[in-house]
Amino acid sequence: MTGERAPGEATPGEATPGEAAGGGATPGEAAGGAAARPLAGRVALVTGASSGIGAAIATRLCAAGADVVGIGRDKGRLTAVAEAATAAPGAGTFEPAQVDLTDDQARQSFLASLVSRHPALDVLVHSAGGYVNGSHETSSLTDLDALYLANVRAPYALTQALIPPLRAARGDIVVINSSQGVNATGRTGQFAATQHAMRAVTDSLRQEVNDDGIRVCGIHLGRTATPRQEAIFAAEGRSYRPDLLVQPGDVAEVVLGVLTLGANAEITELHLRPARKSY
Question: pTM higher than 0.85 for the full model?
């Protein structure tokens, strides 16, 4: 080495031109920071945020700079997710909201507070819902009613109330669906019916709100490594290999990609499956 330095390179203790001019990051560094926080300044509402896929999505959006409102039923788990999500440097805020969305009064009270604080909503992600399986002959109608309330009526009502703030922000709606919402398999009729219903709601909604600048994407997932999926494998008597399944973090990255796509394009539907089938 000759000891010579490249143009613009500082000796130890000497300020670079960028530091001297602005006292901070160079243009390249500033661009890198913006790239790392593509959702800075946006407000995102994520349901099912206390565990599994919803928690992964809420955490990823928060890391991308979004101010997240995460809905869940378990206050302890929701608080833990919020603490972990906001620990990273540059993360947005995370407001945990313990709400049972199937309870009309609780949902309406939450919405009144949310809209008063956030009259413009940039992102709505539906990732909450229930699951049961069983044969058509033996399945409980009580279970069917509960699935309808959690998987169809609650997200329908939530979206209905939030269209005005989504319109104000020209926002995005992402509906986390299932492969069962495309091709139902045996013993999943009740659950699959709710997923088919939400696919129809998603497609119809898109046609209604696109002219308002709102994009709507449905994501149909194959088996994903979540506590629910572990229980399903156990009920089926199968060996559970989470490493062979779609990872919640993969889903979160896909959602981030949908949200950061240029405003002139819209991803309407995505299908995500394990690359290697273990079931």
Answer: yes
